């Protein structure tokens, strides 16, 4: 008889096409809820010392007071194009897991390889979107941060969202042509491949450990909802130094990861590598709970009909 404490992993071949429809809707809801903290994290990582904000809460209050709710969603429309990369990530992850399963049955090995591979594929799509959206995040009246500024903001006039996007894209093309959209591509790979490669193994590790500590009757979805944020916090702490460097390379137009690291250490010391960590964890925690619960529920909803009764949740 099946041991209910063993958390079953739904594989790619168990799913049908509903998976994509549900996936886009779920990802969009998550983006809307956590985007303000993504924006705050970017500001905290780019600012020199504490010249503008003293922390996550301070940044949230100041941006909200100065620009209202819309200020917390600067660059959001452009950022939604990463929904495409999100679906590519999930597909690559699941297919790679299926491939690796022919060589290893270890969940840790499958997650490590699949997570890293999925990030490698998606960053090729995401980096140009990130470059544009990060410059849009930096557009605030009276503030000059980053290389490119929308003219209307510098003159104190309000510019509509699509006008800002068009202006930023033109400036990037004029300065560096297509290469400018892949500014920080290597730094992004060095941030997100390890982040993803670490997240999945820790997620399965925490879920397995909790399944042995909790009663058999405890629903698996609760264990997974706890494991997700724990894995996200672990991955965030391990990869935040590279994330700070990535953001500075993309926003400030740095050409060298090593020189950016040296400059950051000289200006702010080791603590500079942890800038934006709290905002990153705050945004990761609720989003990871939704992602994990949604992702696992999504896979259950997308199970082929003949397999529904064979799974214990």
TrEMBL record:
A GO molecular function held by the record: branched-chain amino acid transmembrane transporter activity
Which cellular component, as a GO term, is one annotated location? mitochondrion
Print the keywords alphabetically: Membrane, Repeat, Transmembrane, Transmembrane helix, Transport
Sequence ranges of the Solcar repeats:
17-99, 106-209, 219-301
List membrane-spanning regions. Answer: 20-40
Protein topology in the membrane: Multi-pass membrane protein
Q: Which GO terms describe its biological process?
A: branched-chain amino acid catabolic process
Supply the InterPro entries for this chain: MCP, MCP_dom_sf, MCP_transmembrane, SLC25A44
A Pfam family of this chain: Mito_carr
Secretion signal span: none
Localisation: Membrane
What family name appears in the similarity comment? Belongs to the mitochondrial carrier (TC 2.A.29) family.
Which protein are we looking at? Answer: Solute carrier family 25 member 44
Species the sequence originates in = Octodon degus
């Amino acid at each position: 008889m099946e041991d209910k404490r063993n958390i079953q992993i739904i594989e790619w071949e168990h799913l049908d096409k509903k998976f994509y429809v549900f996936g886009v809707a779920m990802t969009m809801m998550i983006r809307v809820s956590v985007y303000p903290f993504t924006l705050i994290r970017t500001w905290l990582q780019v600012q020199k010392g504490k010249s503008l904000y003293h922390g996550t809460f301070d940044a949230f209050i100041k941006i909200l007071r100065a620009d209202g709710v819309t200020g917390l969603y600067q660059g959001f429309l452009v950022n939604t194009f990463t929904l495409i990369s999100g679906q590519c990530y999930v597909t690559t992850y699941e297919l790679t897991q299926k491939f690796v399963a022919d060589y290893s049955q270890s969940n840790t090995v499958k997650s490590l390889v699949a997570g890293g591979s999925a990030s490698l594929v998606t960053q090729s799509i995401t980096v140009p979107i990130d470059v544009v959206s990060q410059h849009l995040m930096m557009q605030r009246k009276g503030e000059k941060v980053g290389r490119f500024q929308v003219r209307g903001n510098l003159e104190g006039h309000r510019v509509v969202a699509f006008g800002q996007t068009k202006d930023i894209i033109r400036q990037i093309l004029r300065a560096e042509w297509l290469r400018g959209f892949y500014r920080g591509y290597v730094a992004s790979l060095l941030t997100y491949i390890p982040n993803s490669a670490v997240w999945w193994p820790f997620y399965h590790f925490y879920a397995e450990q909790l399944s042995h500590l909790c009663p058999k009757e405890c629903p698996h979805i609760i264990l997974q909802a706890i494991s997700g944020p724990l894995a996200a916090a672990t991955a965030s702490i391990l990869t935040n130094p590279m994330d700070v460097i990535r953001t500075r390379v993309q926003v400030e137009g740095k050409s060298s990861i090593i020189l950016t690291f040296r400059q950051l250490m000289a200006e702010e010391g080791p603590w500079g590598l942890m800038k934006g960590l709290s905002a990153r964890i705050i945004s990761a925690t609720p989003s990871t709970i939704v992602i994990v619960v949604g992702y696992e529920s999504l896979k259950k909803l997308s199970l082929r009909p003949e397999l529904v009764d064979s799974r214990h949740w």
